[in-house]
């Protein structure tokens, strides 16, 4: 890629970004779009324009984002989102401080050397060196004492990282403690999840078994238990019923509208009962759904009762009368062997993965390892297509492989655009396919809560993207030219990797640029959700509930955002000393990201769960992994320059490991367990435990018809039948 | 070593053993020796001869040992000793079952082959093959299909081991649970140790700080706290006082005796106050010590007060009103960062290592790693002297190195004895020096209880002895002959090790034989303690207390016994298939050990602490490590025979790791933490918590003069002075 196509790519991206920002400023002022641009505020019952973003000019949102505090973020989007911003500002801080030291120090050192001029003319021509190369370490001679500057720069970046990461861990730990000690009643703080309950003893019900067990251990603080049931059937019925209720409401709305607009007696809506509403008998919709509902309601009630009675599983939610008791119980060993009566702290009721609760202890272990193997295989085999894409889409190779395209590809405009975007777009599309698969795999491990599954998937995605994208592209990009060399000496892969890094710098610069300009432009402008919302409202939505569903925003989705950001950070870190200019791009990416996501967190997204910052240790570990990868790369690269003092760099990975170990030791446990001193600040008034209990009843079992006594009765009638032993 | 010297060694050992056993039978019947042979029974207030061991003939003790139950062992020597017997019977079981399968199967297969006859005559002569070699794998041809039998034998031994180890882990887990759930009040079950207490806040005492903290978290179950103090000074004074009291009692006893035996007015004992009682002024002993005591008592009291007031450390013992509360508290995270308010379950008061309690969290971590490094270095550098000993003491080398000894060494009798014993004795003496060093190092890690330190030292000792003795001797024994080969190809160390194993078989057979015959003979006959006791009683002891001190037995010392046994087991396992005859020796060693130590556990030794079987996971892990070493050795050895199916053996180490992982997961945590269901069986009556509290007061602070109120007062006056912040 030559310098002009790099500038083209950068320029086009920036123009797209500007257009999208202007579009956002214009569209977000229209009151009709408020539900798309301010759903978070609307759901919290605030006036979308309270701060007058409409009146404050085009860029009022920037001021608002900048002036917002961490408390604002927590109150609008929760602790998890606040932690995401701690992550962004920490890495932004690392890059800004590093940049302030490195750019003035390294660029002059690099540009005043002249290795590239000394190279044999033939090589220089084929490689097509650009200004970018002159500003990088590629321009520094082997064994040059100038390499001292670059070596020291690695130390600077590392120590800045340690300092800021330590501060961040401290800060997040305090954030988590503050959130947990708030006197507000959170049901999950009074509950624990019990799994691997042994078979019910003769003559006891499952509920009696659980109650006896916990009453013996916690005579004073045990409140109540709820046996987990297999809700597959009842969930299906309940969803069918809810669907029919919505359809009935819709049909009634259509009928009411037809009265207003058409004949005063109205047109009763009809539909066909067959495939997709296209075939079969034509029926009156209102009658049809009313009938179906009145059929389903008793069926659901019967299923609810039989579920409670006959489908109990070997898991339970146990409630305590105080937060300390629950927190302490969740951390203690209950049974003499670990595979019985295992306890964990309860997640929020809404994010409990009920179906995973029945999986047995050793099955969970086994599943975990099987999933790890599958993920490892996926990482390995994804490398092949990505390598191919990267190799095919370099223009030279395209021309070689598809000679009939040669005439088109020689057109200047086509060539520039293709060269600028094709590989990056292929990469981005490819990466978008993966998160769903990884989330599915993580849930298969038997993880009991949504947030934990997202964390697990996110961690896998990070390793995937770093290994495949960064290392994969770097290797594959040079694989075609140096394949024979590799065959001769398979151990040379590390030096090969280090050697090919500078050549791939422009690719990654473009990748980062594309990602932040176009990605964040789309994010801010919300063009896609806006269009979808307007289409839905115009043609599909008939009831208020349907319209609300159409604009309801998702959550920030940090499960995929974090690995994406981490990939960029890994790339920027690894190039920070080799081609220091990349720091500027990294800062722009992260700064813009901070700004735009701050806006989205304050006004748009609504968190779907809260894990009180449990994501942080994962993020921390992965930033550190990036840092170690960077340190190793630099060791290889500076070593490859035949610099005798390169082995000094060996201390850095070791230091990083020690730093990680100490931080992990000091802070990690309070992210896994709840510190008792934190929850000991109980609120004065006794919480409504009944309500805490009810909040854990799954919606499909939570019928108004089944009152609490029946619930209890049904639960205690179980297993007299003896069918679950 | 030829066959005759092997038989000589075996024969001599056996004769020594027989003599010692007869000596034991004869000596143990004399009533005057009862305190040496039955101290455990005497201390428990039982009649030494209750079971009529005196009347039941020479070998009555064997019947008693065989008929004793596990409960007998627990009641006489505690759970830890019972666990030691579980260990012995498990490995005994492994060897017996393996022997029953392997001996009839492998010996015929080996002896009917004839590789040794086919070897070139020259090699055969220098190697000096014996009957032992003919019965071993050394006699099986390379690539022979007979190797299938040996390969399968490895699988048999492994699966027998898995089965019995699993059963043993289950059994020990139950033993531990039973001991912990007993309604008997054990002070340590009501207490936890708190370390890393943050600096005292302004205006509070240390005691108030601790009390407030725990009262907030455990408003209902917190009983009381005891701040740990720096007792160095007060301990010194207290020991001086106790010593003087003993000396006074002794002087008075001498005076009283002199009245009886000499002049009716008696001779007042005198001594000199200078160096060792040899120099200085002559004084009247009774007056001197009385005076000294009356000086020391107020000094001690003053020091006690000032210790309690001014020497408080950042650690405390916290007491709870129930066992569940204490067990749960010991497992829970209390502070948001792990390096503050760290808790562990309290060990027995007598085994608390008070001085280690003040060491800070990260200092403990650091110390641990520093100790690991030191131990690793020790292991490495001990190898050199041991290798030298092993090389020098083979007779051939001795003659080569010290030619002037040639005439003596050529004497048959001298040669046989030297060949038979010299290397083994050198090894045993060498190994005896180490445990003290390792125990010291383990205590330096900052471990807070004696039993834990013993466990840690014991584990280190195992790795030390396996690495140095087994691998070291095996390598060093062949190093002199094959040094050049090793220089050519340093990677050959594994094949070298495997190849040299059969050559060293006689060495280890003799080692095992010597260890069990002579070692257990001495153990049973207690010749050394008996002689020491009689000398002391005759010439030194004047008071009853002194006599009791002279016969008081130690504990079983399983900290050094277990690694010793494990070394034998490792050797026997590793040779079990190569030279199956060794199994007979292994069974004899373990069987004899079981019998003799059973006798000692029931009648002699008195446990000095109880850790409720916490030693077991360590033992288990090390048996498994031996098994894996065995499997790897066999892989190398059978592979070295150029047997194409040898790679099948690779599954075994993997299986062992999985087995270890599953067992560890399932059982380990209940050895680290106390399962709540176990301690939930509280006794009906409320324990005397005051007594529980007082049992944790160190003896040097536990003066009758300082009553409880003063203790409390003194504690609460602290740090108003502000000196500990």
TrEMBL record, chains A, B:
It is a multi-pass membrane protein. One of its GO terms (molecular function) is calcium-activated cation channel activity. Residues 5-167 form the CSC1/OSCA1-like N-terminal transmembrane domain. Coiled coil: none annotated. The chain crosses the membrane at residues 6-27, 82-107, 147-166, 369-392, 421-441, 461-483, 566-597, 618-638, 644-662. Residues 367-637 form the CSC1/OSCA1-like 7TM region domain. It is found in: Membrane. Its main location: membrane. GO terms for cellular component: plasma membrane. Keywords: Calcium, Ion channel, Ion transport, Membrane, Transmembrane, Transmembrane helix, Transport. Residues 189-356 form the CSC1/OSCA1-like cytosolic domain. This is Calcium-dependent channel. Belongs to the CSC1 (TC 1.A.17) family. The keyword Transit peptide does not apply.
